[in-house]
């Protein structure tokens, strides 16, 4: 953040005949970072705009001119954002937060940035947070899935802030709910997946009632940890598990098969998104797999492409935890477990290129975890930070870029920037190190 306004000089009365004098105020210019423990933490609003959470705000970033065009502030006194959802028509944003001892959901108009007056909160729910939220395909309804202890699912007519129906999804001790969604063909039907949980509910007479899953799952897949799911364009449903299985269902929830293209062997699939040719899955090991419809009807889907996330500037292998595809299906945005925001081209020409060049940062690389030390350079528009991810980074707050990033073998706890911008002192657990900032590196001098 930067200060705007004029500050009176020492000994000057700001009210004495100075018409231009006004109180100093703070306004957001740019926010570096990504909050990675938010469900649905990356979405496209159009081909050039990406939404993601940073700190206690949700950021709208324009990728072609590299500018944060809007900041959606969090609710005052809340304890943080827990999940996000963008409506299918890309006009509205749902932001769920923890506020004291209850879960709340605010709706923003993406184009104007205005927050709707009515905030969604359900007094009969004991959960302190909503773990997932999703709009219906017709944009009229919203579902919120509460966390423990009661895991209450609520269907809302969000424009009126009116609950349509609710149900406690699971009474299983310790069960975790991961995702919920509307059936795109029927906004009265909701799907919920979690640890040992795969259920359908239908809104009937003001209540969400459990629906049978058609033919039951075979015993081998009956009690898996179902982590993510996606409705495909041909109205099929793919549910992915922690064990690496991709299970295919019809719209009524009837189990069809475990897809032969599933990675298996306990390679967790943590996120999935549908596109015109099939679906894309991401998970452990930073692997992104693109699946397309197969010519062989028995095979159903085939793996068309596999890409490993670029981790050279983020300090180690991370899992893909959220994905979003642009409206033209040309670009895939990926959020990782170590707080990086990446993008990958899906165009036919780029698919033929070397896999190593397929991935790059949407903005720049970020710290993963808390920042422990920070200092501002007096003579240059630079800020230096160090954090628990064992990195020292130099940021240009005027250009809104990261100038340098250097990883060390241990945590750096404090940092000081020389006024010239050419030297740093970094405090480690056993010693202080004087470092020189050179063109492409940060080198220890003494």
Key words describing this protein structure:
37 strands, four-stranded antiparallel beta sheet, mainly beta, disordered N terminus, Methylamine Dehydrogenase, Chain H, 446 residues, Thrombin, subunit H
What would your notes on this structure say?
- By secondary structure, the protein is mostly beta strands.
- It has 2 domains: about 25-360, Methylamine Dehydrogenase, Chain H (7 Propeller), CATH 2.130.10; about 370-445, Thrombin, subunit H.
- About 0% of the residues lie in helices and about 50% in strands.
- Strands 3-4-5-6 form a 4-stranded antiparallel β-sheet, with no helix packed on it.
- Strand 10 (about 130-135) and strand 11 form a beta hairpin.
- It starts with a strand and ends with a strand.
- The model is unreliable at about 1-10 (pLDDT under 50).
